[in-house]
Design brief:
This is 3-methyl-2-oxobutanoate hydroxymethyltransferase. By secondary structure, this protein is an alpha/beta fold. It has 2 domains: 215 residues, Alpha-Beta Barrel (TIM Barrel), CATH 3.20.20.60; 43 residues, no CATH class. Helix content is 44%, strand content 13%. Helix 4 packs parallel to helix 5 and helix 8 runs parallel beside helix 9.
């Protein structure tokens, strides 16, 4: 977007205080990032959801640091005036702090992100604090955490009972104390998300977390049905069906080539007079025609 000034973590906190909703979308490549920026999105998340969405995996777990760097760098080239957050992949922040900081440094320096996102609550608070103290903004992520999907028993809504809702609140508070600039709440009941949002001072960004959060994030491919076989999700609103348009367009191309309707005269480049004669000889050209 021409003349757009990118957000920063201070502005995002002011947006929460002013009740100005934050818009976030995932993007994984140059064209989608460019289009998202032109549309006025506040924040782009380069999520490890690329594993499911663009790399063909069944989960986010196989996504590597190299994958994240490559895709984040492409997004950064496409959205130079948008705040970009990159996920830290599976098991890259559960070892030593030195190893974690090396990974963060690579994603920031080579991927050109402005911040990183980490899944987990109180159990990763010390690591979050170390990264923040090193000068890197961190976005938290609690509720359904896809990297832990095998441990939590599948894609289940979080915060349905009092015990689970209290756990989420405690995790959010631990992350706030550790210095996160915001927290993604994924597949969390609206009631639990509302309490967390009211309790902590940093913005909450919901995905399937209801209406009482400080912002929303959805996957680029979900809101546009940009996928071979789209699965409806209750928490997603779709705004276009480009998947069907793509299929129709490519099928039309295949049909035109098969029936020789493409290329037409207007798609052909003509050589100067006499070129064929000089290449093949006049007699051979006439015999070929």
């Amino acid at each position: 977007m021409a003349g757009k000034h990118p957000l920063n973590i201070v502005k995002m906190k002011k947006m929460k205080q002013a009740g100005d909703p934050i818009t976030m979308i995932t993007a994984y490549d140059y064209p989608s990032a460019s289009l998202a920026e032109e549309a006025g999105v506040d924040v782009i998340l380069v999520g490890d959801s690329m594993g499911n969405t663009v790399l063909g995996y069944d989960s986010t777990i196989p996504v590597t640091v190299e994958d994240m760097i490559c895709h984040t760098r492409a997004v950064a080239r496409g959205a130079r005036n948008t705040f970009i957050v990159a996920d830290l992949p599976f098991m890259t922040y559960h070892g030593s702090i030195d190893e974690t900081l090396r990974t963060v440094r690579r994603i920031m320096q080579e991927g050109h992100a402005q911040a990183v996102k980490m899944e987990g609550g109180a159990e990763i608070a010390a690591t979050v604090q170390a990264i923040v103290q090193a000068g890197v903004p961190v976005l938290g992520h609690i509720g359904l955490t896809p990297q832990s999907v095998n441990q939590i028993g599948g894609y289940r809504v979080q915060g349905k009972d009092e015990r689970d809702a209290r756990r989420l609140l405690e995790d959010a508070q631990a992350l706030e104390r550790a210095g996160v600039f915001g927290i993604v709440l994924e597949l969390v009941t609206e009631e639990a998300a509302a309490v967390i949002t009211e309790t902590i001072s940093v913005p909450t960004i919901g995905i399937g977390a209801g209406r009482k959060v400080d912002g929303q994030v959805l996957v680029f491919h979900d809101i546009l049905k940009y996928t071979p076989e789209y699965r409806e999700k209750r928490f997603v609103k779709t705004y276009a069906d480009i998947g069907e348009q793509i299929r129709t367009g490519i099928a039309g191309y295949v049909s035109d080539v098969k029936t020789k309707a493409f290329p037409e005269e207007k798609h052909v480049f003509a050589a100067e007079d006499g070129v064929l004669d000089s290449l093949y000889g006049k007699g051979k050209v006439e015999s070929r025609s």
